[in-house]
Amino acid sequence: MKYTTQRTTQRTTTAKGLLTLFLISFLEAAAAQDAPFARRKVVLDNGLEGRPLAFESANPQNFEEIVGKAAAAKVQLDGQLFMPASGKALGTVILTPGSGGVSPAHLMHASKLSSAGLAVYVLDPFAGRGVKDTISNQGQFSMAASAYDVLAAARMLSQQPGIDPNRIGAIGYSRGGIAVLMAAHRQLAQPVLGDRLRLQAVMAGWPWCGYQFERPDTGSTHVRFMLGAVDNWVSVQQCQAMVASTRAGNPNISVRMFKDASHGFGYGNQMQEYPEAIKAFNAPVAYLNDKGEYLDMYTGQARPGMTDAIFTREAAPWLARGVVAGSKPGQMEAFVDDMVQFFTSKM
């Protein structure tokens, strides 16, 4: 997969200045790689160039604040929109990265989706918050904020020319996976998007399913779980429980288990150890009521005001570090084929 990311500078090239120009270009290329994603010039391997597009999101401390429309600190986030040429309004997929941020693999996925006729908005949830990644520290902003990002991006995209507001979907990976799954729930979507706008289709790749509504309500949204059978970062069993409970109220729930697949199996990266990555692999599910309040795992009673930080402290007996992630032969290709088929058929 090939893509470019660069800054454009006009110069007059002379024979005498060739060496200087080469050194400057080299340094600029390195600087561009370190620049926030939305400030880079990004061209996918299908020739589509990204258009930077900012939107206002927020930093709610928990899901309760979203449901209750509580005031939360605002944050300006960015992303890039890739739109294929079309004579009609396009279905659009919001692409939400995981703990490592936007990577070449996400741009490859964006290329495949846009080549199939869908617009893709690649969201950067980190730069606007001054965060590099959340691999070793998931508490730099809340999981509720990640879900809010998806909904705020959908609200912004619904107002863009050339985008069909009734055909907006989302794909998320790992932390981004739980973000899109939670954003698909009416308990959170309605306070942010109102009654007329919703996510049409959602796909979660190797998501963390540690937060779940006790009475899930995803309406008629098409939701697909893509799970790795030997994932040792997130719990497959938690996600299977989420599939079962959500499917009880929505028949448009599907799941695919990939044999011998580890975390990140759809990226096409080599297998690698991440010793600093934090996980709560065997922790019980933290359930939420319809108000977004956490329920005590032992009594089932609502705990208003509980936050991720409190949950992390109480989950200390189950916390550990060290995971393996990457792809084995054929897994990335199978993931991409499934992804394209899902979104083109459901949107």
Q: What is the residue-mean pLDDT, rounded to a whole number?
A: 90
Instruction: Please report the distance between the alpha carbons of the first and last residues.
Output: 25 Å
Radius of gyration: 20 Å
**Sheet with most strands:** 8 strands, mixed
Q: Biggest sheet, strands in spatial order?
A: 3-4-6-5-7-8-10-11
For the record, the CATH architecture stands as: 3-Layer(aba) Sandwich
Question: CATH H-level name... which superfamily?
Answer: Alpha/Beta hydrolase fold, catalytic domain
Name of the top-level CATH class: Alpha Beta
> Per the principal axes of the C-alpha atoms, what is the gross shape?
globular
Order of helices and strands: EHEEHEEHEHEHHEEEHEEEEEHEH
- Alpha-beta classification: alpha/beta
How many structural domains are formed by the residues?
1
Describe this structure in words.
- This protein is an alpha/beta fold.
- The chain has a single domain, classed as Rossmann fold.
- 29% of the residues lie in helices and 26% in strands.
- It is built from 9 helices and 16 strands.
- The strands form 5 sheets. An 8-stranded mixed beta sheet has the order 3-4-6-5-7-8-10-11, with helices on both faces.
- Helix 7 (236-247) links the parallel strand 10 (222-228) and strand 11 (253-258).
- The relative contact order is 0.13.
- Mean pLDDT is 90; it is low at 1-32.
